[in-house]
Amino acid sequence: VEVKIEVVIPEKERGKEEMSANGRASPLVYKVNGTARHYHLEEHPIASNPYHNPKDVVEASVCHVKDLENGQMREVDLGCGKALLIKEGGEFHAVGHKCPHYGAPLVKGVLSKGRVRCPWHGACFNITTGDIEDFPGLDSLPRFQVKIEKEKVYIRASKQALQTQRRTKMMAKCISLSNYNLSSTNVLIIGAGAAGLVCAETLRQEGFSDRIVMCTMDRHLPYDRPKLSKSMDSHPEQIALRPKEFFCSYDIEVLTEMQVAAVDIKNKTAVFKDGFKMEYNKLLIATGSTPKALSCKGKEVENVFNIRTPEDANRVVKLAASKNVVIVGASFLGMEVAAYLSERAHSVSLVELEEVPFKKSFGERVGRAMMKMFESNRVKFYMQTEVSELREQEGKLKEVVLKSGKVLRADVCVVGVGAVPAGSFLKQSGINIDSKGFIVVNKMMQTNAPGVFAAGDAVTFPLALRNNKKVNVPHWQMAHMHGRVAALNMLAHGVELNTVPYLWTAMFGRSIRYAG
Asked: Taking a C-beta distance cutoff of 8 angstroms, is the pair 227, 193 a contact?
């Protein structure tokens, strides 16, 4: 059941609409539980039939009522596409059969307590509404009508939904965007990764219709950063999380190549590196992390890379073709890059301080199995040593010298020795930063500064399954959830973070998925 509320303001009342202090028009405001919320109500007619075009609808008998037991799922074919039929608590539900994130078959996932979880990356969907309730991914599942006639189960669905297998939640738009002062915004989001984008989208999904500005040091709109080390030749438009048209449609402004130099929490102002200042009402800091660089002699030579942008990844792939590659650090990034380049480069050498890759994350047994798999794919390990020098010839990398005395031929070097939180611009702000540089937040992603929230890799937060111990969990899934919780609490919903951290990696056609 969809309920639509339309508010019509009489002509004589329109001049009395509330104006903000600076004279700009404010969006319509109503109060729920004493909390003011901004909503933009689009003028769509109320439709009793959710399928507007009868030609776009298909209805098919898919099974007998006794074919499914409670707690079972089945992929069913409607002729022009498939759906996932679910039986739980004696009731049937039908939703899209593919995860909108990367197309995983949800029938191979886990059904529990009214939700189905993706078998690949852990995204979670409500079986009644199709809504995404845990991440990664941005879109929800389409939901289809189910009816029972003469003990047969029928599904009625839109052909388009069956083909796309995804549904973007209804979103508000900004009211009177042209009336806004360029140097002022209601919500400012610093950082355009998963946390920042999910925050902006959640605000619009909840009906927020004031101005939202995202700013990023990157030159691109938000993209799927984990792909940089898994599919290194991907172009920015191939891994974009949303197309340019999406941001225009929902009035989410993105300022690219803009770096914030300082935040003044007293005057609620962000100061950019070029001197530009922007006032905000609510602020989200989601700047992520900055890769660590090598500190050895020769670190400034050419063809030594941190993988931070699509351009970095593309350049490494191009330079590595039939050449000698040295990767420093058996981190997730380092191992994924080694796996990707193993068939393209002449040689791949991996240098690591620890005895076994992933020992701290997955334990020695898994680490040794991974190491053996890599060695069978022509990757050579140099363990329990570090880089002491990078040697050059005519300004370009020629050799990597290890502290063990070994000299490795190298045309390209990729550095994956960890990262530090990107929050140095906050040192004089008054926002709480811990001894390691992480922004400290509570379960609602709030900092100690009123109206200032933080999310993603740059924060330390209380984790429920660790008895609320403060942790830093730099996972793609966790950044999504942080962004959603921050947005809901900007709107005073009082929602606390409650999710299980989940990560995945894929190398040589094998994957590791880790929950906890």
From this structure: no
Chain-centroid distance of CA 361 in Å reads 22
- Cβ atoms of residues 385 and 363 within 8 Å: no
String of DSSP letters for 226-266: THHHHSTT--GGGSBSS-HHHHHHTTEEEE-S--EEEEETT
Q: Do the beta carbons of residue 78 and residue 58 sit within 8 Å? A: yes
Coil, strand, or helix at residue 374? helix
Q: What is the pLDDT of residues 188-243, one digit of tens each?
A: 999 999 999 999 999 999 999 999 999 999 999 999 999 999 999 999 999 999 99
Fold (CATH) for 184-290+421-515: FAD/NAD(P)-binding domain (3.50.50)
**Rounded mean pLDDT of 362-389?**
96
Provide the terminal-to-terminal Cα distance of the chain, rounded to the nearest Å: 36
C-beta of residue 413 within 8 angstroms of C-beta of residue 431:
no
To the nearest 5 percent, what fractions of the chain are helix, strand and coil? 20, 35, 45
The model's pTM: 0.88
Look at residues 10, 116, 29 and name the one whose alpha carbon lies nearest to residue 73: 116
Closest among 287, 433, 330, 426 to 338, alpha carbons compared = 330
Q: Which of 450, 436, 425 is CA-nearest to residue 215?
A: 425
Q: What is the DSSP letter of 28?
A: P
**What is the fold, at CATH topology level, of the domain defined by 54-164?**
Rieske Iron-sulfur Protein (2.102.10)
Dump pLDDT digits (tens) for 471-512. Answer: 999 999 999 999 999 999 999 999 999 999 999 999 999 999
> Tokens for 31?
């109060």
What pairing do the DSSP bridges indicate for beta strands 387-393 and 396-402?
antiparallel
Superfamily of chain region 304-417: FAD/NAD(P)-binding domain (3.50.50.60)
Burial 11-36 (b: 16+ CB within 10 A, else e): eeeeeeeeeeeeeeebbbeeeeeeee
**pLDDT band, very low/low/confident/very high, at 181 (cuts 50, 70, 90):** confident
Q: Mapped to the 3 state alphabet, what secondary structure does 392-439 carry?
A: EECCEEEEEEECCCCEEECCEEEECCCEEECCHHHCCCCCCECCCCCE
Rounded Cα distance, 40 and 320, in Å: 51
Q: Report d(CA 351, CA 127) in Å as an integer.
A: 46
